Amino acid sequence: MLMMNPIRVVLIADERVLVEALSFRINAEQDLQVVGTAAGSDDGFQVALHANPNIAIFDVEIPGRGAFAVVSELRAKRPVMNVLFLTAHHSDILIEQTLELDIQGYLTKDEPLDGLLENIRRAAAGEFCFSKEVRKRLEFDSEGKHYTIHSPNGLSLLTSRQLEVLRHLAKGFSTKEVAKIMHRLGIHDRVALTRYAIREGLILP
């Protein structure tokens, strides 16, 4: 009997234990195979670009340029590449950014492992996949065949680049774009900006 080629998976995350554990579990499945891993955004871009995966899984928290910037660039070069985000965040603004990228889904790290494996299979086939708590916040447009989320917070005013800058700022980095971000959000000091980012789920406390 002919065996179908396994689904080729790349994992991009800086948590070594997570990557090794997922790789071990994924490779134990006959129809799945990890063909590349990376711990940062630039390396992740190269791995996802050249390993020819059926599905690329990105941790939202990867160091460097950030998962959203990398995936946006990848989608420009490989429009048919299937991508999943895996994250500890349940933030509306991050879900909204995911929907704007038109990728396959947004899964949280509390997802049961068997459920994650099944979602990898579905995403590799081009289906949309969201964790249960994420799906509750979404509405599906059956005519346009896309999901939307109601996110009435000020972060929606920021570009993807500014959101990434804000994430870095809240972790202690400095940037010349800080003043522009604070002005747009109506916030007047960095402490308040950091608290705002935590409150809106853009970073973990």
Question: Layout of helices and strands, plus pairs?
Answer:
Layout: E1 7-12, H1 16-27, E2 32-38, H2 41-50, E3 55-59, H3 67-77, E4 82-87, H4 92-101, E5 105-108, H5 113-124, E6 129-130, H6 132-135, E7 138-141, E8 146-149, H7 160-170, H8 178-185, H9 190-199
Parallel strand pairs: 1-2, 1-3, 3-4, 4-5, 5-6
Antiparallel strand pairs: 7-8
Observed structural traits:
Rossmann fold; 43% helix; alpha/beta; 205 residues; 6-stranded parallel β-sheet; 8 strands
Please, could you describe this protein's structure?
- The protein folds into 2 domains: 143 residues, Rossmann fold; 46 residues, no CATH class.
- Helix content is 43%, strand content 19%.
- The protein has 9 helices and 8 strands.
- A 6-stranded parallel β-sheet has the order 2-1-3-4-5-6, with helices on both faces. It has a two-stranded antiparallel ribbon with strand order 7-8.
- Helix 2 runs parallel beside helix 3 and helix 7 packs across helix 9.
- The protein starts with 6 loop residues before the first strand and ends in a 6-residue tail after the last helix.
- The relative contact order is 0.12.
- The mean pLDDT is 85.
